Amino acid sequence: MKICVIGTGYVGLVAGTCFAESGNTVVCVDVNEEKIAGLREGVIPIYEPGLKEMVIRNSAEGRLTFTTDLAAAVKASLVNFIAVGTPPGEDGSADLKYVLDVARAIGSHMEGFKIIVDKSTVPVGTADQVRRVVQEELTRRGVNYEFDVVSNPEFLKEGAAIDDFMKPDRVVIGVDNVRTAELMKELYSPFMRKTDRMILMDVRSAEMTKYAANAMLATRISFMNQIANLCERMGADVSAVREGIGSDSRIGYDFLYPGAGYGGSCFPKDVKALVRTAEECGYDFMLLKAVEEVNERQKMLIPEKILRHFSGDGAGASRPLAGKTIAVWGLSFKPRTDDMREAPSIVVIERLLAEGASVRAHDPEAVREAQKIFGDRILYSSSSPYDILAGADALAIVTEWNEYRNPDFERIAEQLKTPVIFDGRNLYNPHRLKEMGFVYHGIGRNGSG
Ligand code: NAD
């Protein structure tokens, strides 16, 4: 099939590459000339395991090309995926500017029947807006081509995006037209090798499904963070509680890890957008408002624990972190990505800096992105996590990269000025660390307050 994917970010680049991998002819379009020039040379603008090899292979075999020429790409393709960003507007609603710009461009360049697919996360009713904008363009041009608008939200996870796309839990397709439904099924059939996980529905339900999924996951995280905070106050250990409840098949283990709050380019903005959508139709989504508020507070927990710890060291100063150095492990919003959008590390580090601390941070992939945010206000390392420990007053774990899971604790203790660990992801065994002489602060763990 001839496909064009407009927007070559995390979603568009992965989708386009995986469609090429399954034999389609794919042209990826972006307005960012530098990005497109790089991609033509095999330079991948994001960190996503396995993506680079796949881009290079499919480009070399002629199935995957990159361009800034949207008009030519649309003319050459039957299926046109819109995969541009939908950032939050000032009132929290999804900003559809980029999606509708692309829709307008498709309308002004299409020649013949086109399938237009919303892959970006967009509020219920967006497909209607896309349809209207495309039709306006066709009318303005005085031409009359048929087209269908499909909702096909994306569920991939950054860090595991290729696997998620190639072996999806499910593919949701919102479509009103039988012929287009068949084409979409054909397009996705190579990814349905074992069982058919294709879920066809009406367009509005498909649009809603994406928001409901992310809102549910965010709710589980905020719920578990509050359980953890209560555990801490009651002398219970949230890790044991998590196992105890996760073993119930109605609950399951996933997304029950307490921590430093959720971040990333999706959960915060999608929760906000759904609250806003509800408001627009006169419905108060109280639960989601609380989910958001709990998350905002949770991001402050690590710096508050650090402040509390150093307030009690006898200094009695009004700024207990002045003159202290905190080493931070993990900057990206989660492991296996360089994405810093809405990362809890931003809140943690900004607060530490505001309290007068010096901050040194390690991350295997996100340093380049972090530099855009913190500039030279902090010191960075992307090589060895031990590089930033010498003489630091404490170590805080903010992102659970695998390489932090089993570190050399003796080396950490030797390097730190005082052996204090704030484990924002509950990676370590509190009892073992205490035996080794560490002061250990986890999230919601018995006696580790
Ligand atoms: P991104 O910001 O990484 O990429 C968007 C790309 O679109 C950029 O490269 C930008 O230059 C390009 N763009 C903007 N306007 C354009 C135009 N007019 N023509 C061509 N290109 C244009 O975004 P992303 O993370 O890939 O997310 C895209 C959408 O997918 C969002 O709606 C997001 O909510 C959704 N989504 C993201 C993820 C994720 O994990 N990142 C997962 C599922 C769904």
Automatic annotation (TrEMBL):
Residues 327-430 form the UDP-glucose/GDP-mannose dehydrogenase C-terminal domain. NCBIfam families: NDP-sugDHase. It is an enzyme of class 1 (oxidoreductase). The lineage of its organism: Bacteria, Pseudomonadati, Thermodesulfobacteriota, Desulfuromonadia, Geobacterales. Pathway: Nucleotide-sugar biosynthesis; UDP-alpha-D-glucuronate biosynthesis; UDP-alpha-D-glucuronate from UDP-alpha-D-glucose: step 1/1. The keyword Oxidoreductase applies. It catalyses: UDP-alpha-D-glucose + 2 NAD(+) + H2O = UDP-alpha-D-glucuronate + 2 NADH + 3 H(+). It comes from Geobacter anodireducens. This is UDP-glucose 6-dehydrogenase. Keywords: NAD, Oxidoreductase. Its EC number is 1.1.1.22. InterPro entries: 6-PGluconate_DH-like_C_sf, NAD(P)-bd_dom_sf, UDP-Glc/GDP-Man, UDP-Glc/GDP-Man_DH_C, UDP-Glc/GDP-Man_DH_C_sf, UDP-Glc/GDP-Man_DH_dimer, UDP-Glc/GDP-Man_DH_N, UDPglc_DH_bac. Belongs to the UDP-glucose/GDP-mannose dehydrogenase family.
